[in-house]
Structure formats: structure tokens, C-alpha cells
Amino acid sequence: MNNFMKRSLSTLLLSGAFFVSGHGMQLEQQKQAVVPVEKQQMLNADLIKACYAGNAIAVRNLLKAGANPIACDENGRPALLCTLQAGHSFIVDGVPDKGLNLGMINRFTEAGANIDVEDNQGITALIRAVSMACTLDKGIEVIKGILELGANIEHRDLLGRTALMAACYHGDIETVKFLLSRGALISTQDKEGKTAFDFVPRGRIDIITLLGKAGTVIV
Asked: Number of folded domains in the chain?
């Protein structure tokens, strides 16, 4: 075998070795890429479970471990709203400046979640909290905390309904008063042209009077 053929054969063998080696590297990289994805999915699934269970410690640890703060459950409900669905964010734990811990709501926003994240019905943390406030202790303080985190008081769900409409629907006059004091518009119209007045339960003249004193600005 002459020198030229030897060099050609050597080059071919090296090329083959490089190809095999390169292919092996690609396979290894793919394996390494699969692990984080699988881990992410597991973290996200565990995060959703922790939210529904109201396990604040698990939520904190999972978010620190890399769980996605905007992960959703099988119904498309964001993790933050899974927490509110269970009603576990309304937990007092002695935070000195507010006397109230917004719990997992704060943990999610600190991890990068948008406070106005919506579920598949367009409902946000604020609207959900307002709907729950009348049945919970310190509900107004939680709503206040959510607004301080930057929630849009005029956010409308898919039906065009606002937090004020939700408060009126539930006949929660204290929450109605608070939202009005924060600038909620009483005559914002939903997709059917209804305003907050239309959601007040029959016989609640006190809420009707309160809304009437607030003025009318059609939006």
C-alpha cells in the first residue's frame, strides 16, 4: 500500500471515529436534555399538588428547586390560582408589617409569576380573592395585599366581569366599600351590558345606595 493510500485510509478511519464519537456526544447530550425536562414535569406536578394541599413549605421548596411558577393543572388553571382555589393563601403567620402573610401568592410573584395570571375563564387572583373574601377572616387585607402586588382592579374575565361585580354578586358590602375606595369603576359594563348594579342581590338597598353615591362613569 503506497503512502497516499495509507494517508487516505487513515483519514477515513479518523473521520469515522469522529462521526461515531460525535454521534455519541449527541446521544449523550440528548440524554442530558431529557432529564431536566422530566424533572421539570415532576416538579411542576408536585407544585400543583402542594398548591391544592395548601402546603406552603412544599411550594416554597419546589419553587426554589426550579418548579415553573406559571405551571398549570390539567384544566389549564395556573398554580397560583390552584392555591386560591383551595383557599390556603389566607393564612395569618405574624408578618410584622401587615400582620398577615399572603402566603403562596407572594411566593409565586417572587418567583416571577404575574399577579394577573388568568385561568381558562379569565379569572385572576384578585377576582378569586374577592369571591372568597366574604367567607374568610381578614379577606379585605388579602385583597389589599394582592392590589399592592400590582393587580389590575379593572381586570375583566371572559364574560367582561370585574372584581367589583363579584363583590356585589356575593353581597359583600365591606369588600364593595374597599374596592370603591381603591378606585373601582361602578359602571364598567360586562359583555351583556350589565354593570355592578345588576349584580347586587335583591333587597340589598345598602349596596345599591353605596354604589349610587360613588357616581357613574360608563366604560
From this structure: 1
Alpha-carbon span 138 to 91, nearest angstrom: 9
Query: 113: domain range?
Result: 40-152
How many whole angstroms separate alpha carbon 130 and alpha carbon 170?
Answer: 9
**Can you give the CATH number for the domain in which 102 is found?**
1.25.40.20
Tens-digit pLDDT string for the chain (219 aa): 555 455 554 554 444 443 444 444 454 444 444 448 889 999 999 999 998 887 888 999 999 999 999 999 999 999 998 887 665 544 444 433 333 347 778 889 999 999 999 999 999 999 999 988 876 667 788 899 999 999 999 999 999 999 999 999 999 999 999 999 999 999 899 999 999 999 999 999 999 999 998 874 444
* CA atoms lying within 13 Å on the CB side of residue 182: 22
Report pTM. Answer: 0.74
Phi, psi (degrees; rounded to nearest 5) at 103: 55, -130
Please, which residues have CB within 8 angstroms of residue 25's CB and are 6 or more apart in sequence?
none
The verdict on residue 214 lying in a domain is no
Distance between start and end Cα atoms, the chain: 90
Rounded CA-CA distance 49/67 in Å is: 12
